[in-house]
Amino acid sequence: MGKFYVESPSVSMATIYEDLSPIIPLIFVLSAGADPTSTLLKFAAEKEFTEKIYSISLGQGQGPKAEAFIKDACGNGNWVML
């Protein structure tokens, strides 16, 4: 099939950010070994957003806490990483 179908294109967070809005979320579809956490946190620091980003791992009863983060983010413009 060729490289196009097996290799992910390289794209910067700045480019992705240009396509986002308060009603368009950013969703990463991950493959084994992929972890965009450090890239996202670095970008948040560049945007001076480190105090407004929440991160939570889902599972073991974390659903209600995640929902509260999302609800807060919708009202205050925070970022939530699940």
Task: Decide which structural class fits the backbone.
Answer: mainly alpha
Regarding quaternary structure, how should these chains be classified? single chain
Provide the residue-averaged pLDDT: 88
Strand content: 5-15%
Number of domains: 1
Helix content: 40-55%
Largest beta sheet: what is the strand line-up?
A: 1-2
Detail the poorly predicted runs. Answer: none
End-to-end CA span:
33 Å
Please work out how many helical segments DSSP would assign.
Answer: 4
Order of helices and strands: HHHEHE
Count of distinct strands: 2
Bulk shape: globular
Radius of gyration: 15 Å
Largest pleated sheet: 2 strands, parallel
Summarize the structure.
The protein has 82 residues and is mainly alpha-helical.
Write out key terms for the chains shown.
single chain; about 80 residues; mainly alpha; two-stranded parallel sheet; 2 strands; about 5% strand
Written overview of the protein:
The chain is mainly α and 82 residues long. It has one domain (3-81). 41% of the residues lie in helices and 7% in strands. It has 4 helices and 2 strands. The protein has helices spanning 3-6, 13-18, 37-46, 63-76; strands at 53-55, 79-81. A two-stranded parallel ribbon has the order 1-2. Strand 1 (53-55), helix 4 (63-76) and strand 2 form a beta-alpha-beta unit. The longest helix has 14 residues, at 63-76. The mean pLDDT is 88.
